[in-house]
Write a structure and sequence with these properties.
heterodimer, A: 445 residues, Rossmann fold, nine-stranded mixed sheet, 23 strands, globular, B: alpha+beta, VC0802-like, 2 domains, seven-stranded antiparallel sheet, 7 strands, 42% strand
């Protein structure tokens, strides 16, 4: 069956780990229902919040007999992770947890996600399937410029690339000149990073007199932020790279929830591990394939931290029909926007509410503020403009500089990324019909 | 002895001092002294005008963030050592100058310096003891 698919399509993008990509649909659905049942039972036994919610609705894990029954289950939302910070949603004892990662929450506190060894193995396997689907294999040299550390991007891609058998160059983010030197000197064939960072590397290489088109680099796996077809066209014009869109989020596992294949017609979701639904973000009602709505994901095999019907806030659709690549996995459309106000800046999630909580710490009252997003030399820049209020104002310049510094460090601390702070005159920020406009995004210009 | 000074927050952009200056002029407030303390991004305009409370209210009603602070105006001989005499009078007092600027105005061969001290009352006592002439608002604004 697997061999047939490959023969039919003639695409040699297969690795032994990719076998489930081509599983017959009846087998896939049977696997999903048995895994769904197991994960619901696991969460019900070990996660108080989940058990209480089922009890309130008079539902027991036994009521989940088919995949459609998933609709009986309550949603999980990002604030649940904050409210149970740090370990309240864990379904494994800490002795079985081998890794913790941290992502930004909606206010001051971050969210924590955990993994058992088995979870890490699943994560590695889905990342192997992503890379294999992009046509990478043993012998490729992959430069991983996602940030290593608390962010899931770096280590997730790293394990996947090693699992594939590729040679990994773990550069992590930053230091564009060194990235370019290594791409060139090592004959790197594939790169992982945010698409805007790759644009930055292209621009910087041009300044350094390095022609990206002459490098052996031919594959780029880009994610951690929304991007567009026009960015893909630009990347593919300015380099010899075939650009792939990869999708994931820490709450579910990190990168590797879904990825494009070489048909570039949507992102295949590894639905043997992550069950996708599309709902109307207003009503919560399920939407049919081909209709846009909010993506909801259930982790079918996660042990340390099962997520049941997690509302991603990402707006997309399940594409109807099968992909020509032969995979039976369903596909979602490219994610272009969100149903909440989350911003993605240089791959890092930022909520305006985080900015508010930082500003509130300064004077105890919230000054009027505005977030300005621009792109300079391919890199996202965020400036927070804060209107100076009478209680913030002091007629000594040193005191104003101290205020400026205080706001700067509060924002750096809460957001985890460097932003610019500008103090502006009262009433100078644009308002629409009296309501403050919080975010001005000029990155697409 | 204390003089009321108006401070305004302004962004360091072309035209941002002109607006409050024009506003005051239109309403007949004569600006006696103006000093700008600035950084690359923003600054503080310090003004001495007659009827400072009214002027501050006018600016506030036009959306400016305004602070009225008390400063001292010191008359000093316009000769070498004029400033040093004042500083000597305060030597050892523990009084700190938060900022100061010279008045761009000469009268009878004397200059006027505006000071903001961390402790105005103590500064008045020390300066008067040393025989340094502090101007009252009426004299300064006449």
């Amino acid at each position: 069956m697997i061999a047939n698919s490959i023969l039919e399509t003639g695409v040699a993008d297969c690795h032994p780990a990719s076998a489930p990509d081509y599983a017959p649909l009846d087998e896939l659905r049977a696997l999903q229902i048995s895994r769904l049942h197991a994960v619901v039972l696991r969460a019900w036994k070990n996660v108080k919040l989940f058990r209480d919610r089922l009890d309130q609705r008079g539902i027991s894990p036994r009521d989940i007999a088919s995949l459609e029954d998933i609709r009986k289950l309550p949603f999980t939302v990002k604030s649940d992770l904050r409210d149970t910070y740090p370990f309240g949603l864990f379904a494994s004892p800490m002795k079985d947890v081998v890794r913790l990662h941290v992502s930004s929450g909606t206010t001051g506190k971050p969210i924590v996600v955990s993994y058992t060894q088995e979870d890490i193995n699943v994560w590695t396997s889905v990342m192997v399937r992503c890379f294999a689907g992009c046509g990478l294999h043993r012998g490729d040299i992959l430069q991983n410029a996602y940030g290593y550390g608390l962010f899931t991007g770096g280590l997730g891609a790293h394990y996947g690339a090693e699992g594939l058998g590729a040679t990994v160059v773990p550069t992590s983010g930053g230091n564009a000149d060194r990235q370019i030197m290594l791409l060139k000197d090592f004959g790197v064939t594939a790169i992982c990073c945010t698409p805007t960072y790759f644009l930055h590397l292209i621009d910087r290489a041009a300044e350094l007199g390095v022609d990206f088109k002459s490098l052996p680099l031919r594959t780029g796996v880009f994610g951690a932020e929304p991007w567009t077809e026009s960015m893909r066209a630009h990347i593919q014009r300015a380099s010899s790279v075939e650009a792939f869109d990869i999708y994931g989020l820490s709450e579910i596992i990190g990168p590797g929830v879904g990825c494009e294949c070489r048909r570039h017609d949507g992102l295949h979701i590894f639905e043997d591990h992550f069950y996708p639904e599309i709902i109307d973000p207003e009503t919560g009602e399920p939407q049919p394939d081909g209709v846009e709505g909010e993506l909801v994901l259930t982790t079918l095999s996660k042990q340390a931290m099962p997520m049941i019907r997690y509302r991603t806030r990402d707006i997309t659709m399940i594409l109807p029909g099968r992909c020509e690549c032969g995979r039976t996995l369903r596909r979602i459309g490219r994610i272009g926007r969100r149903s909440d106000d989350m911003l993605i800046i240089r791959g890092v999630n930022v909520f305006p509410s985080q900015v508010e909580s930082a500003l509130l710490q300064i004077e105890g009252t919230l000054p009027n503020y505005q977030i300005h997003l621009t792109r300079e030399q391919g890199l996202d820049q965020m400036e927070v403009q804060v209107e100076v209020t009478p209680n913030m104002f002091n007629d000594k310049i040193g005191a104003l500089q101290g205020l400026h510094q205080k706001i700067q460090s509060a924002l750096d601390h809460v957001l985890g990324i460097r932003v610019r702070v500008a103090l502006v005159e009262a009433h100078s920020l644009e308002r629409s019909q009296g309501k403050a406009k919080r975010v001005i995004d000029r990155r697409a210009e | 002895m204390k003089i009321q000074q108006i401070s305004l927050f302004v962004e360091n952009k072309p035209g941002h001092i002109a607006t409050p200056a024009r506003l005051l002029a239109e309403q007949g407030f004569g600006i006696r002294a103006l000093y700008l303390a600035d950084t690359q991004q923003y600054g503080i305009v310090r003004l001495i005008v007659a009827e400072s409370q009214k002027a501050a209210a006018l600016l506030e009603s036009h959306g400016f963030v305004v602070k009225v602070t008390e400063v001292l105006a010191v008359e000093v001989a316009d000769r070498p050592g004029g400033l040093a005499d004042i500083l000597d009078a305060l030597d050892g007092s523990g009084i700190n100058i938060e900022y100061m600027y010279a008045f761009p105005y000469l009268r009878e061969g004397k200059a006027i310096l505006i000071f903001r001290f961390n402790d105005s009352d103590a500064a008045i006592a020390y300066l008067q003891k040393a025989g340094i002439n502090l101007l009252a608002s009426e004299e300064l604004l006449k």
